[in-house]
Every structure is written in C-alpha cells, then in structure tokens.
C-alpha cells in the first residue's frame, strides 16, 4: 500500500511539474504577443533614469492628479469613469507610478519620498503645471498627503477615495505573501487560463465596478495589464514599505493647510470597525476637512445608478 501511495505521489508531482512548465512557456509566448498590443495611451517621460507614463486631458485652471491604489495595475483604465466626467470642468493627469500601467520598473525602493519625488518630476517634465487637486484611492492616500507636505504651494486640495489614514497603515503590517502568490499564478499561466472562463474577468476586475462602467476596448486593456504587470517587484515592494511609509507621513506636517474631502465607502467596512473609525479621523489631517459617506459603495465599487458626490467645487 505504501509503495503504491508513494508511486502515485511521485507521478502526481511529476505531472504537476510538467503542467507548470507548459503553463510557464504558454505565459512567456503570450506575453510577447500581448506586448505588441500594449501601447502607451499617453506620453512617456524620462524620470530619474527610467520611463514614466502620464495620461492628460481636460481643460481648466487647475489639474486633478489621479493616483491609483495599491495593485491597481492600470490607472488609465481604473479612473476612466471619473476623468471621463470632468474633462469639461478641469484638466486632469493620470499618473502611472513605476511598475504600473505603461511606466517601466525602477530599482529605487518604494519609499514614500521616492514615490512623491518621481510623481512631482513627472508632472514637471510633462508640462502639467500646478495648482494640483490630488486625488488618491486606498493606499495612495499616503502619497497624496505626503505630496502636500513636501510641495504645499502647489496643492490646492485633496480628495481621498476610500483612502486609508496614515495612522491605520502604520499599525497594520502588509501581507506581501498574497502578492507573491498572485504573481506565481500569472507566471505559470494559471491566471491567463482562467480568463477563458466566463465571469472570471468580471469577478477579478473589482477596481472598475466589475467592468460595468468600461467600454469593450478598456475591458481588454485591463486583461492585458493584469497579465503583463500585476504584482511585479515594484508593486510588491510598495506594499512591503507601506507601514514604514505611513510612519514617515505621520512625522510630517499636520494639519495640512489645504481642504480635504474624504469619500468613505459605507459598505466596505461593515466588518472592519477599525477601518471605519480611521476614516472618521482622517478629516483632522486638514484645517478644512470633511467626510462624505457613500452608503452603497465598496472599496472598489459604486453602483452605477448612484451619482458620485460632488467634490470638485
């Protein structure tokens, strides 16, 4: 019995190794084809020795700078439902941090000051002039606040879309193992295979309302982005540095001398009381802070029939 069991285990392991090798080859071959279709939608600029991407549009006296949350691979796709609605009211700039969207990877540690310096330089070399209204989702709340701390004369306001507070992130260690597992599934072709099953893309694409608000071309672009860029080294290191980055933000100026609006997803924190309490405290980061709760929203979703609260005025 033990001899047969051991033989079955060995055969199983051998089969698993063969499947993983086939999946890896499948992924590598598909990546080459995907890269031919994955062309920048905005412009690339030299920033500290690497190419960084920015997508701009709109018209107005101020510029809304969109910073995506951690792991949201393609900010151009993620923020489409927002910048598509404000182009008549304001200029906008969608920033791809290193490792995201169409930006290259960098060897620089994902320290918060490195990230903010890179964003500031990208805005400068691309000709996007202040004043800026910084809009940050989730973990990029740290980036938005830190940007205002370092460049106070260039920021006229901050809007955080379910952004976490520095106090919250400083006390909660990140689970980078999840990022590594997701990268493994991509590298071995498992994720690419799952995209062939109906409903997988919609369930995975929570950052764009399950793709309900996206045109068909952006749905495909989201798939390409996930398979090409998700959970790369820069993205993983960004999570690894998050607790340290939050503590650095806590050492900076508070309260900020610019207005801040906190948009809180009412449904996201039903089981996370600590998160909701930290949201209530976030307005204290500004001399003129306010919180707006969107009851039907989750961290990455808002029901399309509900209009977004007006925070642009």
From TrEMBL:
The keyword Aminoacyl-tRNA synthetase does not apply. GO terms for molecular function: hydrolase activity. Keywords: Hydrolase, Membrane, Transmembrane, Transmembrane helix. Residues 64-177 form the AB hydrolase-1 domain. One of its GO terms (cellular component) is membrane. Pfam families: Abhydrolase_1 (PF00561). The chain crosses the membrane at residues 7-26. InterPro entries: AB_hydrolase_1 (IPR000073), AB_hydrolase_fold (IPR029058), AB_hydrolase_sf (IPR050266). This is Alpha/beta hydrolase.
């Amino acid at each position: 019995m033990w001899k047969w069991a051991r033989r079955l285990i060995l055969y199983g392991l051998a089969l698993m190794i063969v499947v993983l090798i086939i999946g890896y080859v499948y992924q590598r071959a598909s990546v080459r084809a995907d890269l031919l279709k994955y062309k920048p939608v905005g412009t690339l600029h030299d920033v500290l020795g690497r190419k960084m991407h920015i997508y701009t549009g709109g018209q107005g006296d101020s510029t809304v700078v969109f910073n995506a949350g951690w792991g949201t691979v393609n900010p151009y796709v993620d923020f489409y439902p927002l910048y598509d609605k404000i182009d008549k009211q304001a200029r906008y700039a969608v920033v791809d941090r290193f490792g995201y969207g169409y930006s290259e990877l960098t060897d620089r540690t994902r320290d918060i000051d490195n990230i903010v310096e890179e964003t500031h330089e990208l805005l400068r070399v691309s000709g996007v002039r202040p004043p800026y209204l910084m809009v940050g989702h989730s973990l990029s709340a740290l980036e938005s606040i830190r940007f205002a701390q370092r460049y106070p004369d260039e920021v006229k306001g901050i809007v955080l879309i379910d952004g976490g507070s520095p106090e919250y992130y400083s006390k909660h260690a990140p689970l980078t193992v999840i990022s590594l597992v997701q990268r493994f599934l991509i590298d071995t072709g498992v994720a690419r295979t799952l995209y062939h099953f109906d409903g997988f893309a919609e369930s995975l694409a929570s950052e764009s309302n399950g793709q309900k608000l996206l045109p068909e071309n952006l749905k495909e672009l989201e798939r390409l982005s996930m398979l090409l860029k998700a959970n790369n080294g820069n993205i993983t290191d960004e999570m690894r540095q998050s607790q340290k980055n939050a503590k650095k933000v806590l050492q900076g100026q508070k309260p900020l001398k610019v207005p801040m609006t906190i948009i809180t997803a009412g449904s996201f924190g039903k089981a996370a009381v600590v998160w909701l309490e930290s949201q209530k405290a976030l307005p204290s980061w500004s001399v003129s802070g306010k919180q707006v709760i969107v009851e039907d929203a989750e961290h990455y979703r808002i029901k399309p029939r509900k209009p977004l609260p007006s925070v642009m005025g």
